[in-house]
């Protein structure tokens, strides 16, 4: 069964647009997953984290997937690693950030997986592109 999901994507290190396009390419190759719609990419100031860091490019993606929420998260984390994401400061600069915003109508509250994304309503950089593709 395919589930409609919404993902957030962001980058503020390196060739941001190129990294986002590479992430989209990798997402399009995920087994049982199809990209339905991609929002425009917007540039935003960082929220939280260190004061001195570059602006982000952010977008949202609508997908249909047969992957479970946990499997989807695992695949997103693997894509982040493949694209050079390093664990640094919380909310610090990063080459790529992939988040599950919504997974069908599921509500999940596990240690490493919270759906809907807990900060979704507090972040204009998520809401603006998300509303564009809803």
How would you summarize what this structure contains?
The chain is of the alpha+beta class and 134 residues long. The chain is built from three helices and seven strands, in the order βαβββαβββα.
Description:
- This protein is α+β, with helices and mostly antiparallel strands and 134 residues long.
- The strands form two sheets. Strands 1, 2, 3, 4 and 5 form a five-stranded antiparallel sheet that branches.
- The mean pLDDT is 90.
- The longest helix is centred in the middle third of the chain and has 14 residues, at 69-82.
- The chain is 28% helix and 29% strand.
- It has helices at residues 16-28, 69-82, 124-133; strands spanning 3-11, 33-38, 42-44, 56-65, 97-103, 108-109, 114-115.
- It is globular, with a radius of gyration of 14 Å.
The major sheet is characterized as: 5 strands, antiparallel
Shape verdict: globular
Beta-sheet strand percentage?
25-35%
Order of helices and strands: EHEEEHEEEH
The portion of residues assigned to helices is 25-40%
Ends apart, CA distance between termini? 20 Å
Class from helix and strand fractions: alpha+beta
Number of strands: 7
Q: Any idea what the radius of gyration is?
A: 14 Å
Mean pLDDT: 90
Which stretches are poorly predicted, pLDDT < 50 over at least 5 residues?
A: none
Oligomeric state, counting identical vs distinct chains? single chain
Total count of helical runs of at least 4 residues: 3
